[in-house]
Amino acid sequence: MALIEKAKGRLETQSPSGYTRLFGIAALGNLMSRVQGAVIASGTELENLIWARTTRIDDLDVFLVGTMHSTEDRIYVARKDQIKRSKTIHSKYEPDFLAFNPSTRHCYIIEVKDGDQFDTKKSNSEHVTLHSFNNDISSALPYGTSIHLCCFNVRTRDEIYHGLKGKFSLEEVLTGRELCTLLGIDYDEIVAVRQHDQQRNLEYFLTELLKIVDVRRMIARILQAFGDDNRSDPPHEDSAA
Question: What is the per-residue pLDDT across 127-138, written as a single tens digit (0 to 9) for each?
């Protein structure tokens, strides 16, 4: 998982961030902006974790020529920077991945999201972008094509469908587990890798939070209030006694 401690926050020498305006404490605003930066970085990290585990294409143009008559039943993957450099594919759009199955002559156009909630305008924009890319390349490839938006952390296609406000059909969305099955990689292993740094992030966040004097004083006051409330509660009696 991306680490908060390595994320850059908004400099409060600039105009106050939204977080600072929300809480009224500049240091807290900076910490929250670092959290947001880590969340954004997690999306890039997810793409890298997926890519590292796939059967990767070294040169997309060479691959397309070399598999013209291949019947190999295996998924080969190209990523965004390779799509951008390709002399065969011409589009101003670049999805996260292209996944090719030579045996079925099919190319999956894939965008991967770490979240699942989009406003209506953004959902429509994602849909238009993927279809525009599909239209741009379909005649240039010796493959049939389909678009797919994957919300990696969502359990079911129905949840993704509703999260995307119905802008994508059920056939156009994938769960993370479905994507990993398609690519021949281990979904649970990727999830375990991402969970590894959760405790480190939590401890770092709490430590930095308590370094902020005004926040620390407020937490102490709240804890004192909780302590007073607990002392007024009647003793707990074991029901088996």
Answer: 999 999 999 998
Q: Which domain holds residue 104?
A: 55-184
Buried b / exposed e across 66-75, counting CB within 10 Å, b at 16+? ebeeeeeeeb
- Strands 76-79 vs 173-175: parallel, antiparallel or unpaired: unpaired
Mean pLDDT of 184-205: 93
CATH of the domain at 148: 3.40.1560
| Residue 241 domain flag | no
**Residue 229 domain-assigned?**
no
56 bridge partner residues: 77
pTM of the predicted model over 0.85: no
Please state the domain count of the chain.
1
Q: What is the spatial distance between Cα 181 and Cα 178, in angstroms, rounded to a whole number?
A: 5
Torsion of CA 36, 37, 43, 46, to 10 degrees: -110
The pLDDT assigned to 121 comes to: 79
Q: Quick check: is 37 in a domain? A: no
**Would 77 be classed as within a structural domain?**
yes
Query: What integer best gives the mean pLDDT of the chain?
Result: 88
Pick the more confident residue, 109 or 43: 109
